[in-house]
Write a structure and sequence with these properties.
Layout lengths: L1 H5 L2 E10 L18 E10 L4 E9 L2 H12 L8 H6 L1 H9 L12 H19 L6 H5 L13 H7 L7 H6 L1 E9 L5 H13 L4 E5 L4 H15 L4 E5 L6 H10 L7 E3 L7 H11 L5 E4 L6 H9 L5 E2 L8 H14 L13 H17 L7 E3 L12 E3 L2 E3 L12 H7 L5 H4 L4
Parallel strand pairs: 4-5, 4-10, 5-6, 6-7, 7-8, 8-9
Antiparallel strand pairs: 1-2, 2-3, 4-12, 11-12
The structure holds 6-deoxy-L-galactonic acid (LFC) and magnesium ion.
Length: about 425
């Protein structure tokens, strides 16, 4: 086994892969009106022939900057053996996040952190392709720096038990909700059609984009609530559109549609603002959800300490890969706040399904108020796409972190030379 684990990383390639989703308004919200779902796509080659695949999710033009950042990190990875990395994964995480010249760009936030996620996701993929891991080993991957005031390594080990048998997940899967019916740029007719289809396929939880125009929001929420009936679940997502007071008054006007949560009501950095919104909306039975642009575990720590969110939305590509997401899962558990991961984008469902299954099996053992986002775009481009059955994520069967793309897809979608882009004025 040790031999197998040596796998020296001899090459890192990163490619700018973009999908023209904005043409059909897929993924559109109150702030991102023309999103082209994209990825900085990383491949790690080893001398043993084993390959690791990782990515981070971005939008369109932003991808080229992330690609540069990944290239800058490559020298810290190439030449290392997998064994060397995972035997001190905490140290390797720090090497990437604390490089004395590059940390000035973050630290642990923004483009450099997205790039870190892409690289580490590929390392996790490589590792997952070689063997199973023990919970204890996983805790040794977490960098506890800056969070020991709420969570120590010893405590983490206590929390991390094998809480649940995997059988239930194998049979029923992990509950999901869909965001695909109600992107902001979809006309009402499309929204109705997609909602009808989703109901037929067994979906019971729906997220609607809001925040650009109150009248539109009222109309769209009314349509959806009428279609899904009183017992199904509705969530709304403003993607950071409002100031604090505006968020409270706007959402109060949508309260009649009984949303479970308002997501990203204001700046993702405004912890006290989210606390104020949480407090104001609690009497209406509406929680606050955020996390897809929460920069790191330290911010999540403070969100939790300040009771500023009622749903933790981890993101497989915004945080520093599995290492940092584990820290957040454990802190959320300690504060008794449910985790409902952000997914969608391109590859995010494929990645985050692993984290939420882990959360259920090893940390929370609880499904109340918990569900994982699902978005029905671009799965066909992956070699092991997610499997959804009756609105549940079915556990992935293939070894690895599930974000290997078809090579033909990468070639066609590579920006700017791929066929998809060559003839498009963008
Ligand atoms: C630009 C993207 O589609 C976002 O709108 C999306 O991630 C969204 O916030 C979500 O919660 O799925
Ligand atoms: Mg969102």
């Amino acid at each position: 086994l040790l031999d197998k684990m040596l796998h020296k990383i001899i090459n890192l390639t990163v490619r700018d892969v973009r999908f023209p989703t904005s043409l059909d308004q897929h993924g559109s919200d109150a702030m991102h009106t023309d999103p082209d779902y994209s990825a900085a796509y990383v491949v790690l080659d080893t001398d043993s022939g084993l390959t690791g695949f990782g990515l981070t999710f971005t939008l369109g033009k932003g991808t080229e900057i992330v690609v540069c950042a990944v290239e800058a990190l490559a020298r810290l990875v190439v030449g290392k053996c997998l064994q060397e990395i995972v035997s001190d994964f905490r140290g390797f995480y720090r090497l990437l996040t604390s490089d004395s010249q590059m940390r000035w760009l973050g630290p642990e936030k923004g483009v450099i952190h997205l790039a870190t996620a892409a690289v580490l996701n590929a390392v996790w993929d490589l590792w997952a392709r070689t063997e199973g891991k023990e919970p204890k080993q996983l805790v040794s991957c977490i960098d506890f720096r800056y969070i020991t005031d709420v969570l120590t390594e010893e405590e983490a080990l206590d929390l991390l038990v094998k809480a649940q048998e995997e059988d239930q997940m194998q049979k029923e899967g992990y509950p999901a909700y869909t965001t695909s019916c109600a992107w902001l740029g979809y006309p009402d007719e499309q929204l109705k059609q997609l909602c009808t289809d989703a109901l037929k396929s067994g979906w019971t939880r729906f997220k609607v984009k809001v925040g650009a125009d109150l009248e539109d929001d009222v109309r769209r929420c009314r349509i959806i609530r009428q279609m899904i009936g009183p017992d199904n679940t509705l969530m709304i997502d403003a993607n950071q559109r409002w100031d604090v007071a505006e968020a409270i008054s706007w959402v109060s006007k949508l309260a009649e549609f009984r949303p479970l949560w308002i997501e990203e009501p204001t700046s993702p950095d405004d912890i006290l603002g989210h606390a104020a919104i949480s407090k104001a909306l609690a009497p209406l039975g509406i929680g606050v959800a955020t996390g897809e642009q929460c920069q790191n575990r330290v911010m999540f720590k403070q969100f939790l300490q300040a009771s500023a969110l009622q749903f933790v939305q981890i993101d497989s590509c915004r945080l520093g890969s599995v290492n940092e997401n584990l820290a957040v899962l454990l802190m959320a558990h300690k504060f008794n706040v449910p985790v409902c991961p952000h997914a969608g984008g391109v590859g995010l469902c494929e990645l985050v399904q692993h984290l939420i299954l882990f959360d259920y099996i090893c940390v929370s053992a609880d499904l109340r108020n918990r569900m994982c986002e699902y978005v029905d775009h671009l799965h066909e481009h992956f070699t092991c796409p997610v499997v959804i059955q009756d609105a549940h994520y079915m556990p992935p069967k293939d070894p690895g972190y599930s974000c290997e793309m078809l090579e033909s897809t990468v070639q066609r979608h590579q920006y700017p030379e791929g066929n998809v882009w060559k003839n498009m004025k963008k």
